[in-house]
Amino acid sequence: MTRLARVPCTIVTGFLGAGKTTLIRHVLENAGGRKLAVIVNEFGDVGIDGEILKGCGIESCPEENIVELSNGCLCCTVADDFVPALDAILARPGVDHILIETSGLALPKPLVQAFHWPAIKSRVTVDGVVAVVDGPALAEGRVADDLDALAAQRAADETLDHDDPVEEVFEDQIACADLVVIAKSDLLDAAGAEAAAARVAQALPRAVSVVRAAGGKVDPAVLLGLGVGTEDEIEGRKTHHDDELDHDHDDFDSFVVAVPEIADPAELTARVERAAAHAGVLRVKGFASVSGKPMRLLVQGVGTRVSHQFDRPWGAQETRRGALVVIGLKGFDRAAVEGTLLALDTAA
């Protein structure tokens, strides 16, 4: 079977909160006639990103074409999760392109290497690897929004033998990229945009296109159809983890908080901001029902930077429910965070 007969796959990688889901949602809403499928690699047993994408409700990517994997980082569970997920998607007729959203902790290289597996190599190819980076964080000299959480993450992992694992994961993602998207560019002034671009350029080992995005809005024609066949080049893309047979993410934990219907989106946003300030919390995201409003409220927090917007109407047969997922370092104070989100803490 020739490469032209294989279904192209775009791998979207990037650290927690960089803007991967927002970018993919924009692609789904502007598919230009393509029939798309998505594999979403959540962290833990939660499905918030999948829910956000399924909320698009568009013909180009029906709900059954969105597959959620929550048993661990894709680059660690290729055989158990990724190959069966591809099998399920490829069994559906007419899929033109597959988008794969990795978890924020994933290393792209092992996933790309999996495309050589006999079970799938004749059916799919890596159209390209897209690395999404947090522009405002990079402008301030960080790879993600919460520097204290990153420092705690490094200190918590006794198995690491290098000084700055999060920096190295960031650099590995850039090293494997065929395209880099500097997200949240609307939050950057000219000096910040220049600093973010310089940090990306410093990490790039070769000439790769870099584009800026606000609200995840990048023309799908820029992202899809790169035609790289990255699996054929990946061995030549050197990363910090080339000598490691495996890696793990046992220092992270997550849980979901069911949120009762709210009256004021700003008040919920304030609660999320306070929850994100707890030691060890890396990310809070999810959705809520607002009394008297027909639309679902989407909430996304990276560090203490929180945004909210109404993303879609509630379905006629759908239960109006709210849920927030909290992702943090192993051992963070779950009870305190949950109390803050539910306004049960004394500070609320």
Distance between the termini: 61 Å
Sheet bearing the most strands, described? 7 strands, parallel
Mean pLDDT: 79
Stretches where pLDDT is under 50 for at least 5 consecutive residues are: 44-48, 152-164
**Shape label:** globular
| SSE succession | EHEHEHEHEHHHEHEHEHEEEEH
- Main sheet strand line-up: 3-2-4-1-5-6-7
The computed structural class is alpha/beta
Q: Total domains, how many?
A: 2
- CATH domain class name of the largest domain: Alpha Beta
CATH topology of the largest domain: the name is Rossmann fold
Percent strand equals: 15-25%
The CATH superfamily of the largest domain turns out to be: P-loop containing nucleotide triphosphate hydrolases
Number of strands: 12
Radius of gyration: 19 Å
Question: Architecture of the largest domain, CATH level 2?
Answer: 3-Layer(aba) Sandwich
Number of helices: 11
Summarize the SSE layout with pairings:
Layout: E1 7-13, H1 20-29, E2 36-41, H2 48-54, E3 66-69, H3 78-90, E4 97-101, H4 108-113, E5 124-134, H5 135-139, H6 147-156, H7 165-175, E6 179-183, H8 190-203, E7 209-212, H9 220-223, E8 252-259, H10 265-276, E9 281-289, E10 295-302, E11 305-313, E12 322-329, H11 334-341
Parallel strand pairs: 1-4, 1-5, 2-3, 2-4, 5-6, 6-7
Antiparallel strand pairs: 8-12, 9-10, 9-12, 10-11
Helix pairs in contact: 10-11
